[in-house]
Every structure is written in C-alpha cells, then in structure tokens.
Amino acid sequence: MATPSHLRPRLGVLLSGTGRTLQNLLDRIGDGRLRASIAGVAADRADAFGLQRAMDSGLETRVLREPSAIWSWLLELDVDLVVLAGYLRLLPIVPEFDGRVLNIHPSLLPRHGGRGMHGERVHSAVLAAGDAESGCTAHLCNARYDDGRILVQARVPVRPDDTPATLAARVFAAECEVYPAAITLRWQELQQDTPAAP
Ligand code: GRF
What we know:
By secondary structure, the protein is α/β, with parallel strands linked by helices. It contains five helices and seven strands. It has helices spanning about 20-30, 50-55, 65-75, 120-130, 165-195; strands at about 10-15, 35-45, 60-65, 80-85, 100-105, 135-140, 150-155. A seven-stranded mixed beta sheet has the order 3-2-1-4-5-6-7, with helices on both faces. It is globular and about 50 Å long. The model has no long low-confidence stretch (mean pLDDT about 95). Bound molecules: 5-O-phosphono-beta-D-ribofuranosylamine (GRF). 5-O-phosphono-beta-D-ribofuranosylamine binds near residues 18 and 21.
C-alpha cells in the first residue's frame, strides 16, 4: 500500500557544494529508511556538484540566488519542509515557511556556530579549543546563522590524534543519522499541530 502523503513530507533542498547531505537523503529515501520525497533541488552556484547528483537522480534543479526567486519556486513546488544541505547563505525566511526550514551544522551548537563557521573551519576550531567531544546539530532556521531551536543532536568523541579531516568524517557519519531523524521529527510535530481534516 502506498504511504499516505501526510506521512511523506515533500522536501525542497538547497545546497552550495558537493551535495553529500543530499546524497544521504536520496539513499535513505531510496531504501525506505526516510519517508519523504524530494520535490526539487536548488543551488546558489551553477558549479555545485550537488546539482549533478540531483540531475542524476532525475530531480528538478534550479540555480537561484535571490531569496524571492527561491521562495516562489518552493511555493510553486508545494514543499512541506525546506532542507538546507550545505547551503552557505543566510536565507531570510518568509512567514509561509516559518518553522519549516531545517539545517544541520557539524558541531554541538551553540559551540562553534555562526557566520563563516562551516566545513573544515568548524573542526579546526573544535581541535584548537581542546574539546573532548564534538558532534552535529539539526535545528530549525531563523534570521541568524545556526541559531534556531535544536531538533536533534548527536555526540562523537574527539580523539587525541584527530585532524580536522578525521574529525569531519566522524561527525558526518553522525549527520547521516541525525538529519533524517530531525526531518521525521519536525514533520511529526507539524502534523500534531495541524487539526485533522474532518
Ligand atoms: C555538512 O557537513 C553539514 O554539516 C553542512 O554542510 C555539510 C555538507 O556539505 N551544513 P557538502 O554536501 O559537503 O557540500
């Protein structure tokens, strides 16, 4: 039997880079571990490899930079949730999508977040601070970088011989579990907030 549509949110994915997070979502939707569908993928740069992954999966893609163009495209696609997947811009959120935009950050927010903190910089900062653990944080987005309500976090140890690259790999493996869980959690929350149709 087909899964009822209210159990499968339509996702709009925004990215700037390689699309590893998109690939993880595609893999998990493909094997049934994540109940969702991807309505389209937009990048802020035409050379983002994530666009190629999306095209290879037969998804609708766009290169969009203007927030107004992004929102009208997402509204046209009728997406339920917007998933930032390595998207490097701060996106002002329109009221229709308040509480519906998710991000994942490769640290234990509020540590090591904020403007300019992405990729290897985050892991270098964790090592420089001498933190005993790191992790990842899936959260709702608001008007500031890495600041909205935390949905799901996972912790990983920092090992004495870690480099930014080895720590990044451990954190990314945690992200692959955490982001699908956060998408599912947020969709369940929104379903509970919405009175059932008579
Ligand atoms: C992830 O590590 C995530 O924490 C951050 O972007 C990274 C994925 O970007 N938001 P990419 O797919 O490697 O470009």
